[in-house]
Amino acid sequence: MAGVWVFQDDGVMRLVDNRGGDTSRKQLVHLASGEVITSYSVLEAKLLSLGWERYRNGDPRLLQYHKSSTVHLISLPRDFSRFRSIHMYDIVVKTRNEFQVRDVRVPNNATAIAMPQ
Question: How far apart are CA 17 and CA 62, in angstroms?
């Protein structure tokens, strides 16, 4: 039994079969500009404008950013193709009210251009 549990407006929960249907991908959106983050250069520009700095003393396999006024450290894989929803949510939590993770519906028969999950 594959599918997704959906709560309807009347409070009833039902299982929706999603085999062969649309898939959902995640994308990180900068709220102030409405811009979808499509590369690390775009993301870095947004983070730098918010007072984040590149942290260069860490793991060379990661891109890391820190903000001197907090204890937060954002760690991302160097390869943007490995940028997943867990990294997006980490950014959202550490930069309150600046970014949002959104679902993008992609039909199975379409070519996916959205970022990988």
Answer: 38
Q: Is the pLDDT of residue 117 over 70?
A: no
DSSP state of 67: -
Q: 25 near 9, Cβ under 8 Å?
A: no
Beta bridge partners, 75, equal 64
- Please, what's the largest Cα pairwise distance for the chain? 53
* Alpha-carbon span 87 to 29, nearest angstrom: 13
Q: What is the pTM of this model?
A: 0.71
